[in-house]
Amino acid sequence: MDKILEGLVSSSHPLPLKRVIVRKVVESAEHWLDEAQCEAMFDLTTRLILEGQDPFQRQVGHQVLEAYARYHRPEFEAFFNKTFVLGLLQQGYHSLDRKDVAILDYIHNGLKLIMSCPSVLDLFSLLQVEVLRIVCERPEPQLCARLSDLLTDFVQCIPKGKLSITFCQQLVRTIGHFQCVSTQERELREYVSQVTKVSNLLQNIWKAEPATLLPSLQEVFASISSTDASFEPSVALASLVQHIPLQMITVLIRSLTTDPNVKDASMTQALCRMIDWLSWPLAQHVDTWVIALLKGLAAVQKFTILIDVTLLKIELVFNRLWFPLVRPGALAVLSHMLLSFQHSPEAFHLIVPHVVNLVHSFKSDGLPSSTAFLVQLTELVHCMMYHYSGFPDLYEPILEAIKDFPKPSEEKIKLILNQSAWTSQSNSLASCLSRLSGKSETGKTGLINLGNTCYMNSVIQALFMATDFRRQVLSLNLNGCNSLMKKLQHLFAFLAHTQREAYAPRIFFEASRPPWFTPRSQQDCSEYLRFLLDRLHEEEKILKVQSSHKPPESLGYNETSLQEVDKAAVLTETPCTSDGEKTLIEKMFGGKLQTHICCLNCRSTSQKVEAFTDLSLAFCPSSSMENLSFQGPASSPNIQDDDLMHTTVPGPSEEPVIYNPATAAFICDSVVNERTIGSPPDEFYCTENTSVPNESNKILVNKDVPQKPGGEPTPSVTDLLNYFLAPEILTGDNQYYCENCASLQNAEKTMQITEEPEYLILTLLRFSYDQKYHVRRKILDNVSLPLVLELPVKRTTSFSSLSESWSVDLGFTDISENLAKKLKPSGTEEACCPKLVPYLLSSVVVHSGVSSESGHYYSYARNITGTESSYQMCHQSETLALASSQNHLLGRDSPSAIIEQDLENKEMSKEWFLFNDSRVTFTSFQSVQKITSRFPKDTAYVLLYKKQNSTNGLSGNNPTSGLWINGDPPLQKELMDAITKDNKLYLQEQELNARARALQAASASCSFRPNGFDDNDPPGSCGPTGGGGGGGFNTVGRLVF
Q1: Does position 489 have pLDDT exceeding 50, yes or no?
Q2: Sign of CA pseudo-dihedral 113, 118, 119, 125
Q3: Backbone φ, ψ for residue 751 (5° rounding)
Q4: Which tens digit of pLDDT belongs to each residue from 836-857?
Q5: What mean pLDDT do residues 163-187 have?
Q6: pLDDT attached to residue 292
Q7: Phi and psi dihedrals of 987, rounded to 5?
Q8: What pLDDT is attached to residue 580?
Q9: 759 alpha-carbon distance from chain centroid
Q10: DSSP helix/strand/coil, 945
Q11: Is the Cβ–Cβ distance between 250 and 430 less than 8 Å?
């Protein structure tokens, strides 16, 4: 059979005929053959594989060998023996050199064929020795890559014990000798692929045998620190950096910078070569290690090395900015080198001649990535020109080139320069990494404070724990989209699936931070939340328009309402109610609220329905304050006709529109009780933060409050909500200008919620402006947080149809009779009483401190879905809906108290979580209730309530409604791949954790806080570095996982 096959492959017969005969030869392999025939066939096929003159002969050799080896396993085992394999590796095959890649490929395939045979163990022992010999001979990249393939598939061939350390060291040296002389793209890609295979092999060995890591790294440093002029280590060593656990940065850099055996010349060489690694296209974390080493050298005051390296390499680093693959890392290193080089303009002036060309080039391509890069570069250049002023001839062309980009404030420039100076680096290395450990027992992931970003962290955790919203975000198909929603989905996915204790949301922070928010400064979490929701809403509207190629009006968004509504506070009014036409933010957080004003003289009415995403609840004034003027800063006592945006309703066909303070933030300008910081003046004013573009368009209202007998009991959220919705009599100086009467008249104003949101966001207006002392103060009143909140919603009955049947009692003189001169309906109670929609408390954002410009935010939250704990809630709501409107608004003896008490008892056994930046712990609802009584400066600020539905998920026609009741939706492949990759890295870090701790203990000068960024700070604090953001300009972000 071997003679037939040999004659066939060398004959001139047509190729199809040859293939048919070869197929017959392969089929005959299952027939019995004696040992000599088998050996002859194995000899022939081996010769065809290794010395075949064309691809067809080599292919035939593989096919026939595999077939005969499978059916004649003992004979092939005897043929493919230890002596034969050793001869191939040491002597080659006939004319084929032993270093030919074909020999390794043949051995690789042979091992697969005899994997189940006992003799394979002898081959493994042989190969453990031979692969070490091959590596010591410094094979070319192609041969080394094939060897890596073999060892990846057959890890039994990797040397064991002490030989494994030697093997890794020799493999590092081999990589250091790699070179690629070709400039063709195909050859370069192949070279990078070969290097990647070898570095991946080293990664697998480090993971399997952690004891090999440190000797390997020592070998890397020995190669790059060599001062031998005859040898230049390959840039391919950069491929190893991404496999070194970032957790070891602190220990390794401390060890290197404090080792007396490392001379300055060697350190300079090593640092220069690491900077050269920025050119390697697939290397990750090179910039992180370079910056860490620069900081480490500054910490031990080795300024000579820093100066020499900066002047030598600054232009090379700048030139790397032209290449997109390595641009982010190059910009990070360039920023640190320039900002830390503050004793002389020499380094900056080396790159000044090249700045203008770079800026013009990137401005002309118009890519978003180029624009974002130029914004960062512009900020860096402004900092340097500020620090080294006095060179107008050099800087004028640059200023002209970057004039269209934002200029950082002087305060920001000073902050960046102060944080980046070499003299400020002495302790920065210790805080550049967070403590690495697994998730806490809660199973939840914290968010690393990036520098006074607790306002964002607390809001994000509250939104993440809003189960239905989280699931909707994770289920979105946003592949290929770089929207803010995509970044939120990425953040939610990592919070849900990462194995890390805390995640650093840097990308999302930069994308979602309002432009007027100063970085590293405390901000208002409520303002951030409104901005975030509005951005997501507006973004989805634009995407819908683009995808449907329809004008914005087709999505139900009115241009007029867009002009009238403050985007930071409320959503635009839309006449469409179909869930399919709503954005996700509208579906989850959007509600509608109707404002109705009735003239008490002519009974004409005007009304307006407005959308909202949150309600701002003011505190009820004290009982002694009978006259409170809720007045805008620009409003006038004399209300002109144009000051009220309204139309009188002559008939039911005309839709009335009036000014609506629906979500007005009634912020008391001064203190309303003795617990507020500061001394209260005699007269109180409140500001309306309304959604009307013209700040002068305000309605003056007068709210009389009942006397509280026997002291002042703790108000509840229900009280504040009732106060917000209470009818108001506009009289005296606050009279309403009626167009029908053509004069000022007494009027009544009523607000009703006509459409409830899935998630109700309530903001307690605790920050007030004191007009007497001209300062912002905080109201520290304790507020009772009900676990169950019943929201009065009036969906069906129109105010217009009822306005004529209402009678008004103008004889109220005793303010204790009614909360706010409540109207008494003359119709049936059922017609005017709204339905009470039950909500369960989902999360609470707490502010700790005495002013909005300082303090700390953290949040309490729990998982609630649409049907959770809804037991008989629908029946109870129907019963409660029969109660009178007055009893509900007064909030006295509501039957919901029984339900709430029952829920509180059940909630004691449920899990609440406390999210405090990177720390997440278990807590209880009792702790949430008592937070202010235990810590007077810690007060509830933003509340999220989840509506209890008869069905889970979003209401309406949403096709995804009701899915994932017991878990989050499956992630998109892109997200899952990113999380899987990061989790694998985390496992490697954990595996080497013990080794790192041992090195850390051995380094006497290495000390850093063992409990993370701010674990040792007092409660309600963002920590000495702004919650653990660390120092430096655009660098620490790359040192945090």
Answers
A1: yes
A2: positive
A3: -120, 140
A4: 999 999 999 999 888 777 788 9
A5: 90
A6: 92
A7: -65, -40
A8: 61
A9: 22
A10: strand
A11: yes
For residue 493, the Cα-to-chain-centroid distance in whole angstroms is: 9
Is residue 551 classed as helix, strand or coil in its secondary structure?
coil
Tracing tokens 């061939």 back to the chain, one arrives at 157
Give the distance, in angstroms, between the CA of residue 324 and the centroid of all CA atoms in the same chain.
23
* Confidence check: pLDDT of 678 > 70: no
Q: Band of the pLDDT at 911, cuts 50, 70, 90?
A: confident
Contact of 173 with 224, CB cutoff 8 Å: no
294-353 pLDDT, tens digit each: 998 888 878 888 889 999 999 999 999 998 888 999 999 999 999 988 777 888 999 999
pLDDT of residue 988: 53
User: Which residue is listed with tokens 């955790």?
Assistant: 461
Rounded alpha-carbon distances, angstroms, from residue 642 to 189, 367, 554, 654, 688: 70, 46, 31, 20, 18
Token pair in block for residue 807: 């009678």
Task: Record the tokens describing residue 555, joined without a space.
Answer: 């999505």
% helix / strand / coil in the chain, to the nearest 5? 50, 10, 40
Most confident by average pLDDT, 391-395, 804-808, 922-926:
922-926
Q: Mean pLDDT across the stretch 617-633?
A: 50
3-state secondary structure of 737: strand
Q: Give me the helices (H) in 92-226, please.
A: 101-113, 120-136, 141-153, 162-176, 185-208, 213-224
Cβ contacts of residue 638 below 8 Å, gap of 6+? none
Residue 814: CB atoms within 10 Å? 10
Write out the DSSP string of 234-286.
-GGGGGGGGGS-GGGHHHHHHHHHH-TTS-HHHHHHHHHHHHHGGG-TT--SH
C-alpha triplet 389, 306, 311: angle, nearest 5°: 60
Q: Which of 49, 66, 67 is nearest to 58 (CA)?
A: 49
**How high is the pLDDT of residue 67?**
87
Q: Are 689 and 616 in contact (CB under 8 A)?
A: yes
- Could you list the active site residues? 454, 856
Q: Which two tokens stand for residue 691?
A: 């959604």
Residue 440 to residue 923: CA distance in whole angstroms: 13
What pLDDT, on a 0 to 100 scale, did the predictor assign at position 309? 92
Q: What are phi and psi of 454, to 5 degrees?
A: -65, -25
Q: What is the mean pLDDT of residues 865-888?
A: 40
Q: With left for phi above 0 and alpha for psi between -120 and 50, is residue 679 left, alpha or beta?
A: beta
3-state SS of 580-635?
HHCCHHHHHHCEEEEEEEEECCCCCEEEEEEEECCEEECCCCCCCCCCCEECCCCC
Residue 362 three-state SS: helix
Side chain identity, residue 351: I
pLDDT exceeds cutoff 70 at 879 = no
Q: Are strands 747-755 and 591-599 parallel, antiparallel or unpaired?
A: antiparallel
What are the residues whose beta carbons fall under 8 Å from the beta carbon of 248, sequence distance 6 or more?
Answer: 992, 996, 999
Mean pLDDT rounded to a whole number for the chain: 74
- How many angstroms separate the Cα of 830 from the Cα of each of 232, 728, 825, 826, 882? 89, 22, 10, 11, 7
What pLDDT digit, counting tens, does each position of 771-790 carry?
A: 777 777 888 888 999 999 99
Closest CA relative to residue 862, chosen from 922, 905, 919, 917: 922
Verdict on whether the full-model pTM lies above 0.85: no
Q: Please report the pLDDT score of residue 730 as a whole number.
A: 85
Angle at alpha carbon of residue 502, lines to 501 and 508, rounded to 5°:
150
C-alpha 4: how far from chain center: 67
The length of the chain, given as a count of residues: 1041
- Quote the pLDDT of residue 39: 85
What is the Cα–Cα distance from 797 to 976, expressed in whole angstroms? Answer: 49
Q: Kindly list the strands in the beta sheet with 665-668, ordered across the sheet, starting from the edge strand earlier in the chain.
A: 629-630, 685-689, 665-668
pLDDT score, position 152: 93
**Distance separating alpha carbons of residues 1038 and 793, to the nearest angstrom:** 49
Q: Is 560 exposed, middle or buried, given 0-12, 13-18 or 19+ CB atoms closer than 10 A? A: exposed
How far is the C-alpha of 205 from the C-alpha of 219, rounded, in Å?
Answer: 15
